[in-house]
Design goal:
With about 425 residues, this protein is an alpha/beta fold. The protein has 14 helices and 14 strands. Helix 2 packs parallel to helix 3, helix 3 packs parallel to helix 4 and helix 4 packs parallel to helix 5. Bound molecules: S-adenosylmethionine. S-adenosylmethionine (SAM) binds next to strand 9.
């Protein structure tokens, strides 16, 4: 261990690249559990613009207030996993700092909406806010408008029961928006996030190959309907793109169907309860060559609480997702809510057999085991009936058997109109 200025640290740990011993601008002590407030106070200079004290358990509120007083230019403040800090000092960030760009207060159980809402309301420069695993119960109603420069908003695993509607404005601007793991509904949702590499990489080639012609036809019908609807008033605003929401986008095997959409500049938004899905979905989009024409954004969220306003998207796509979601009734109600009048819901799902008694029995018997092994996939859902009961204004639905895929059969597919 090196000593630096009498302190038990390696100088390189403390001086960020580009700093010098005399004139450093960034101090960084992540995971140094013995770092104290006194120590930080001792080495802090006015030139410091960034402080990283993540997981330094001895850091107290007075350390943060001192940093704010001593370093008027501070842009980055990282104090995740500092259990002694409270709303009191984080409110001071909002009260006396207009230069803050990145703030990390995650994994601090004492941090509530009191301070976070103040930060959101009074930090015009804020670009990145990490506040996961805190005790935040609400966000300001106009969050989406206040955080004009935001790139990252990470508020997963809090106690939020509702997301402000304006948060949808951020979805277009933010690179990272994570809100899952909140009790966005009552009863609280369990987030399916098992990190199963196999499912993320899901590429059931045999299955996709067999269904390709029929699915291609279905997507082609969807795109034709969207082209026709775009001529109606209000379906697409002036200067806006058609928005398609893929629910449970997974590894985005549907990317290929967007290639022949005959529509320019679709705004494809994929939501998934798995927060690791982005790179897989993006890879599929790149491989299918759809990105020059269309855009793809992925959001970590659940279908049971879609983070979109009422009547805000032109189409929703759900393929092999409603068998897995925790609450299909709620998910379909949410899909219907976010669709614009006349908007389309394309679905493709395997369901419980209506015609083969012995297959039905096997599906019911095997469903718990399948759900356990395959990320929550249920074999015993009557998804067609659930969609019918949701009361869409028009429903074109087909029920059919694929030639293989015994228990992942029969299948329903179709397009419902909101
Ligand atoms: C079987 S995969 C289907 C993926 C893709 N749509 C396809 O056609 O292959 C189901 C996907 O739904 C996601 N999922 C499960 N429950 C969800 C929920 N409640 N909300 C959103 N996505 C969910 C899973 O993480 C997974 O990526």
């Amino acid at each position: 261990m090196h000593l630096w200025k009498g302190l038990p640290f390696d100088k390189n740990d403390v001086l960020k690249e580009g700093g010098t011993e005399v004139d450093f601008s960034y101090i960084s002590f992540p995971n140094r559990k013995h770092v104290t407030t006194e120590l930080v106070v001792d080495i802090l200079t006015e030139k410091v613009t960034g402080v990283n004290l993540n997981y330094c358990e001895k850091i107290t509120d007075s350390c943060i207030t001192f940093i704010l007083k001593r370093c008027p230019q501070i842009a980055d403040l990282f104090v995740a996993g500092c259990p002694q800090i409270t709303d009191w000092s984080i409110s001071s960030v909002a009260d006396c700092c207009t230069t803050i760009k990145c703030l990390n207060v995650s994994e601090n159980k004492n941090i509530t909406s009191r301070s976070i809402n103040k930060v959101i309301e009074s930090s015009p420069q804020l670009e990145q806010l990490w506040a996961y695993k805190c005790a935040i119960t609400s966000l300001p109603e106009n969050t989406g408008f206040l955080l004009a420069k935001l790139q990252t908003l990470w508020i997963s695993n809090n106690k939020l029961t509702k997301l402000p509607r304006t948060i949808t404005k951020l979805i277009g601007v933010c690179d990272h928006f994570y809100a899952a793991g909140n009790p966005l509904l009552d009863p609280p949702l369990k987030i399916v996030n098992q990190g199963l590499e196999a499912i993320r990489k899901y590429n059931n080639e045999d299955y996709e190959l067999e269904i390709f012609p029929k699915k291609e036809q279905l997507f082609s019908t969807l795109f034709s309907c969207l082209i026709n609807s775009s001529k109606q008033n209000g379906f697409v605003g002036v200067g806006e793109k058609l928005v398609i929401l893929e629910v449970g986008i997974g590894s985005f095997p549907n990317a290929i169907f967007y290639k022949h959409a005959n529509i320019n500049e679709l705004d494809i938004i994929g939501i998934d309860s798995d927060d690791q899905i982005d790179k897989y979905a993006r890879n599929s989009a790149k491989r299918a060559g759809i990105l020059p024409n269309h855009s793809l954004r992925t959001i970590h969220a659940t279908s049971e609480a879609l983070p979109f306003p009422d009547a805000s998207v032109n189409a929703v796509v759900s393929t092999l997702t409603l068998c897995t979601v925790q609450n299909p009734f709620r998910s379909i109600a949410e899909i219907k809510r976010v669709l614009k009048p006349g908007g389309k819901f394309l679905f493709w799902e395997h369901v419980l057999s209506e015609t083969d008694e012995s297959l039905r029995k096997s599906q019911i018997a095997l469903s718990p085991q399948q759900a356990k092994l395959k990320n929550g996939c249920c074999l015993d859902r009557r998804t067609g009936e659930t969609i019918r009961a949701a009361g869409f204004s028009k429903l074109d639905m087909e029920y059919f058997e694929l030639s293989n895929f015994s228990i992942l059969n029969p299948t329903i597919c179709g397009i419902a109109t909101a």
